[in-house]
């Protein structure tokens, strides 16, 4: 009888819910419309699920119990209830399934103490919702959620009530939008109404910022927060506002971002100032995977102010600006930046660009940091480079530009063509015969051709003593416009330089010596050559241009070097052996005197009478504007010796005593000088001695010094042809300069293992305020970098003196607590007995906010800075900044 009742109950259940079986994935209809008698007459093994409005599988489970209300068609799930419906997942302490209304309802349940547990969690796709109560219609895909927390991108939305439509969009009432992931956030944007489009954007009406449950007046009439999943989206860029001394109150960096596709986007922004003036900027970034990436930026500035204000803002006086500019009232500037970086591939050409061209004052009016403000020049280049496959040849076509930010002068190299051949064997170059190890097969040659035209818009002033142009003429400036293109081209210096490096192989002498001869030859072609003639009437040198000119120069030499090993076996308690490496080298080079008249590169010309003796004064004048070889015969012998000393010690981490490691005592100790046989005096060059080593794997030591082997004149201080060396008085050479530097970088990682690398402080960005660091790592408890420098430069004679530089500097960081960090940088000058530089930073980790306080007590940049900003990249413009030197607030 009991088995019959169970079978009858299951039969009735299958009639009412023909496709609902707990824990199985079977399609569920929304209503039973078939004839029950017809269904009962079918074979239960081949029973097909009738089609209804919902054909998606429902999977469910519960830890405590599952209760079926057959008459009302309701299923109750108690304790860790879970439902999976397509891409939708619902977890809660209690879930109700109502097949009459096609709804799912999830709530919390009180535990034995009365505390609510089992917060409902709703997930569909990558969207997550946590709420106290969730009601969802799985037929219409609409829902109503109470006291919900949803995540959209990096942001979290806390809402009292949320309604969700069939397009997965939801509308929230009485909302808190924040990037803080705590249940009670530290800050939030309070908005009465919010609409969220998943993977796209969050929009709100009027909102204001609340910090620590304290409402602030910071807000706007509407809010737009992009929350894209994978691809970028277009949207409004909210401006920041504040005040400047020179231009008044402002709205800055407001505009719109256009996301054309996943590979290209454009940012259009502008600034507007209450005292007049504005900035416009367009920035486009692009990339193509495995091919290239880059960005293009255009900027325009309209600055309105008095002359004194402009000079104060730019550091440029009115006399430095062209007369035709309206400098006293308005200034208009522009700037262009373009960078293009290719992904190099073998056998394919690579096009690259780095362009930075601006008006003279544009960089000063729109700088983002001290380094950019003080940059003396702007440089640009565009090039195409390719290596010809299966050959030693390559070529580069380039155009470059240089601009002075102080004088406004511009220099161009257009075009700049370079063709080169890498080092190849002469035998391989002229014959296809296989190598036979003949001595002449070691001969190699490399070739380089550089053809260029150097153009400048500034023709410098020339006086009677200039070299080589001797006519007196004032400075001149060629305006950069299309009408002057021909003048600019004709004023350029056109040249072609050919360079040959010929290697004659390497040869062993006496088994241990390596002998390497070499020959170098270069030739320059120029579009102008000069001829000089003294004019007795005007007492001036006249110059004639004779057209094409050719310059060549050559040199030859050879080097001899070897390596000597010295080993001392100590067999001590820890030290096993000491090894000394000595690398002596000697080389000889010869170059003729290219001022000899037979070469024709220089002309001995009468330039007038000597004012002291009234005798004729002759000078060697170069007959070319550039590329002139040096004068005087050179026959020099260079010599040097390099040393390094290291120990072989037993490893401290090895208990067997069979493992060893190398410890350096001296990394490099070098001595170098040369002797020129062709000079008539002072043939021996100054002697340089350099020492580099690491002490205890922590301290880096560098010692550099220069010694003059000759005595100095007691009056002028110049060297005289008399050696300073005196063995009896223990005088070796006269020291002219010497320096010693010590540096060490320490952190906890330095002392953990012997192979640890000291951790240095992160470097500041070039375009960043020096009072605000780019990155603060709270994981490192402390760091310390110490540098010590001592340098002396000596001059001799009556007015001789020694210039001493003696400084020490420290920089580092210290975690006072897990959330407080102090960074410091201090320098002290022992000669001037004052603090040369100091900068202090205090950082506070506010969980979802960062606070930074900076103080620079000395120097022209002295001042303080206070910044509080949201940590999330989504709200990175949500910040409060106070700068004392500009007296500005910005939000």
UniProtKB/TrEMBL annotation:
Top-rank lineage group of the source organism: Bacteria
Pfam families in the cross-refs: LptD_2
Domain LPS-assembly protein LptD central residues, every copy: 202-710
InterPro entries reported in the protein's UniProt record: LptD (IPR050218), LptD_2 (IPR045659)
Entry protein name: LPS assembly protein LptD
Lineage: Bacteria, Pseudomonadati, Bacteroidota, Cytophagia, Cytophagales
